[in-house]
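Supplementary notes for students who missed Thursday's class. We covered one full example, reproduced here. Read the sequence, then the structure, then the short commentary at the end.
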Amino acid sequence: MLGKWQSGSTNRPHPQPQQPESVESINKSNATSYPEVEAQLVRVGVKNRGCSGLSYHLEYVDKPAPFDEVVEQDGVKILIDSKALFSIIGTEMDWQEDSLASRFVFKNPNIKDQCGCGESFMV
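Structure (token representation):
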């Protein structure tokens, strides 16, 4: 498990330490999903939806938005949508595979409540 990353000289925790499996999965996904695009970034955000209020939203983008937080590990850059920063700061992002699905999972210390299926949460 990774410790909290430090952000340059501000010495504050980055929003999302990534597990090695998630870095590898992003690399594989970038290479196979969009081979025509050379540099791809993944932006993590939250959307208002679900029975508990918020759910994670991942999207591929070609460049950061003006206020995105950039987190880098092993050559993979993850962008954190500035509007989601306070909801997901300190969250660990991991990759999980089982017989039913392959997906990113988030271990968010800010969650106060979540729905029964685990798809949405409240901070």
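Commentary. Helices lie at 20-33, 85-88. The longest helix spans residues 20-33. If anything here is unclear, bring it to office hours.
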